[in-house]
User: Fold this.
Amino acid sequence: MNAEIIAIGSEMLTPFRQDTNSLYLTEKLNLLGVEVIFKTIVGDSLAHLTQAASLALSRADIAIFMGGLGPTEDDLTREAVAEALGLELRRDPEVVAWLEQRFAARGWKMAANNLKQADVITGGVVLPNANGSAPGQWISGKYEGREKIVILLPGPPHELKALFEEHCVERLRAKIPLQFIATRELKITGIGESHCDARVAPIYKRFTDVQTTILAGAGEIQLHLRSRAGSLDTAQKRVDELVEKIEEELGDLVFSDNGDSMEQIVGYYLQMRNATLAVAESCTGGLIGQRITSVSGSSRYFVGGAIVYSDQLKTALAGVSAELIKKHGAVSGETAAALAEGIRKRCATTFGLGVTGVAGPTGGTAEKPVGLVFHALASETGTEVVERRFAGDRKRIRWFASQQALDMVRRRLL
Amino acid sequence: MNAEIIAIGSEMLTPFRQDTNSLYLTEKLNLLGVEVIFKTIVGDSLAHLTQAASLALSRADIAIFMGGLGPTEDDLTREAVAEALGLELRRDPEVVAWLEQRFAARGWKMAANNLKQADVITGGVVLPNANGSAPGQWISGKYEGREKIVILLPGPPHELKALFEEHCVERLRAKIPLQFIATRELKITGIGESHCDARVAPIYKRFTDVQTTILAGAGEIQLHLRSRAGSLDTAQKRVDELVEKIEEELGDLVFSDNGDSMEQIVGYYLQMRNATLAVAESCTGGLIGQRITSVSGSSRYFVGGAIVYSDQLKTALAGVSAELIKKHGAVSGETAAALAEGIRKRCATTFGLGVTGVAGPTGGTAEKPVGLVFHALASETGTEVVERRFAGDRKRIRWFASQQALDMVRRRLL
Assistant:
């Protein structure tokens, strides 16, 4: 079975806002064995919306409409879908009562236009919305001789997700031939996309029953694997086999085989070894600390550190001697090493990370160009320094530098 | 005139990837006076793509196709659009020569399938791609009796943007009745969306010739204003008048009236006053430093500071006495103030920022719940402490805390 997702709202036809609900819905639909074949974004126009609805009904088994269920005159999804289906809207007294109660409970007076939200397409099932005043609707039946499922969902993401989870997943499962689907997500760093694909394509192409999507992000590559089979066991086994073969080929370039982020993985490893970490960040300006502490519970292995944007602070907070900076420059392997060692000592941790570089777009020289970054990891056994030259803008260079630094910790703990 | 944007690629029908090019294109089209009425996302299927192309031609004046211009068998945009237009593809010898030269210059052998990229729709103009091997195409003429413009663009964002800028903007301008459009973007913090809208809606509703979009982001509200008139002067004047009236109503809740970010604004103000800043971050873990240093040139006013995730570091790096922490707790106004004062002293800056709180989801207590954050700003004239209780998840709480902290610096410098 296949689906079309229709996102409704004129704000999604501006340069400022984008539909993101469809990513969530696509994931849920894929796990039920449903492929998404079209996504349409349409504004709050009855004519456009009715046209989009007719079209979706004509070309997909399942049509899911998101948004346009509010009480204002711009909220036209109910009307448009009813029109496309050739069905009537009728005001549902139970929904009216529920709306009145909802308003009364908050001590608000319900405006007359809210009654619109009680209009239900003939034969439709009302899907209660636990987080808002716009209920969803489920309509299933024949359209032009073919079995169709039509779902109306509210636009706000938290309302949509809760409602879909609670009222749609099981209903869909009952309508869809039983399938078993297993997924895995591998994350890879330290290799470019084309080299990575050249190495893994020959492997995943042999697994014709596993759908593989390769995506390049900032400083990492993601491999999304999905297998469908007659039993969950078989599906899982096929995905796992492919994961194993890819890991054999790529070795420790694979940092995660369950979708965890680099900062989560580094956290696991540090905790497992009872180790602690401190950072001294120059060009990343706090990004590494921010990433590590984005993980709840990171205080078990991360103590903090210093943002040493000025040379004075490299000395004052991380104990790097002013002579060393003068001799080698703030952007140098020597300074990176001294930052890592200094912050480790100052914070009394197992590991110290030091990062210094030229994030650009200004400040580069022939000798020390934009993108040049030195990363150092200090521990009891010594200090490792890695020099990298990253391409791209300031944001990208800083992100890559943070990824490289975290990956050094991971590799040390492998 | 209106436009439909069609994004092509099966990866955009997965849960992992999304069209973002259309935001850029919508901005450019809006500035030419063109409204986007539909966006369609379609996979690499000739039937689906041809259907989407026919539909776009039937309902929009301008149809812009993004992606599917590569050399592989999945790249079907040329074929589908030609089919929908009822036109032929012919191999363009000049493009063939250009492709051969491009490959030869890199010392690569050109595979036969690359010749596909030289197939041009009859009557189409080739749009050279400076950044890749897939040229764009421009077709304009009658379709079913109405004047239409069809544009084929490569999918990779940097290729698309450069090509559209260089080869499409002027061509479109020549086809579109001359219009003058002025835009402004206001950013507002310290007030919720509904309260903000209640205060500004009565104002912007009087400006019926200025299109106003209100968007709530994390810790800020954006007001996008766009005016269209017979002269640029008139358009600009109307937008400026509305900006003035909104600023009168909201006062210093407006932190930017040209789209600049909070970290940019804080940077301007610090530089203007020849002031410097240092931070001591506990629950934000480096986020404030990361935001400040995301602005190029921030070393002129930002020296760095400390990430004081553990209590020991609050003492060691920011000079907060262990007794004070013991007495009031790490999450307290007293600790925030001591962090701000300590880091200011340690770093010898004009201002010191201290932030400590419970980012959650764990670690909250009845007395100090998740979301409670203390922010302190220290200067020569004293220390200001602000206590806030933010709702939401860890990421949102940390972002709001960083926004509040930066806004304290802005307000002090107003």
Remarks:
- Chain B touches chain A through 77 residues (CB under 8 Å).
